[in-house]
Amino acid sequence: MLEAKSLRKATVPRSLLQHPSPGNVQSNRLALHVNDDNSSCWVYIASGCRIYKLEISMQDSLVNRGKESLLIPEQCEVMNSSLVNHCPHRSEIQSIALAETERSDCLILGSVDSYGHLIVSKLDNSGKDVDRLTFSALPRDCGVGEGGWAGICFSPSQWCMAAVARSFCKSIDVYDQDIHLQTIRTLWYPSSLCFMQTLCSGNDSSLLAVTEGCQLSIWDLRMKENGGCVHRICGSLGDIFYTVCSSSTNIAVGGADRTVTIYDPRRWSALSRWVHCSKYEITGLAFSSIDSDYVYVQGVDYEVLCGQWRDSKKVLSFRGDSNWLGFSKCANRDVLGGWCDSGSIFLADITKENYIQSTDGLSNGVPS
């Protein structure tokens, strides 16, 4: 079973950012990176046309619990904070994402604004800004027309490949660095996207999962027939999907129906439905990197919970103190971060509880 090692609450210094810009329902304006020695975590947040970073300690601490096992955060101070040396956008940043290169010696920071303008920078793995590489890419229509929500995701196997979704334009642009590869046209307004990490796609990361309206669509970037769309799954009519995530074996979606649905990509059938797990709409999902039978769920009502989706059982949860402006999970470990419009940042470190096996082969219930 998963348990919390620490839950910390820090406040963005007023000298760095006094009034954050409002966010969309999809909270994509936060990204995390834990330092190599696991002593601290860099939290990247986007407000307006700029990106800021804060360093928060990852020291283990006593975790207090309230009613219904709700985790109570420990107040802490921000160790370091600064403006990221990242080219500013001309309009409000809608989403940011972090990726690691093949050698893991540097980070790739990508951001997209409300008109679909993509900017990518290379940063040092320790969190320092290094002018190694910066490039930008404009959408095919050069960003004309009306702006709106936009999302970004990197390929898990090729950091140079990124997909940018634009809700108002009903389009998804795929880039290899600053080279435009193709444009996908969706039927409805896209709200979330991710490259699939499933066994059926291997390591080529050619499959892209997109939530659009009340549908989950799967796109194969290698195909031209039917625009590349290989499968569509319809949810309840009128219940919009807001988020999608993928593990090595399954894919999950959530949205206005407050239900997490897990699909098997080999047959595209529903394995499990965790009905009404959140009090309000689900706007963020992430599979646990420790055990993919667990999933993290972020709701509009400030709550973040972790549960076993097969048994529809909640194991832990915590709450923000106001609306989420950003929420994210580290790519390869269970560290969660959330940013509220009050200026508070919540950082949770989750681990798996180990049990010592007794001589008769049964667990004695004592943590190792």
TrEMBL record:
Q: Where is this region: Disordered?
A: 1-22
Q: Which InterPro entries match?
A: WD40/YVTN_repeat-like_dom_sf, WD40_repeat_dom_sf
- Note the Gene3D superfamilies from the entry: YVTN repeat-like/Quinoprotein amine dehydrogenase
The record, for SUPFAM superfamilies, names: WD40 repeat-like
| Descriptive protein name | CCR4-associated factor like
Q: Please give the organism.
A: Actinidia chinensis var. chinensis (Chinese soft-hair kiwi)
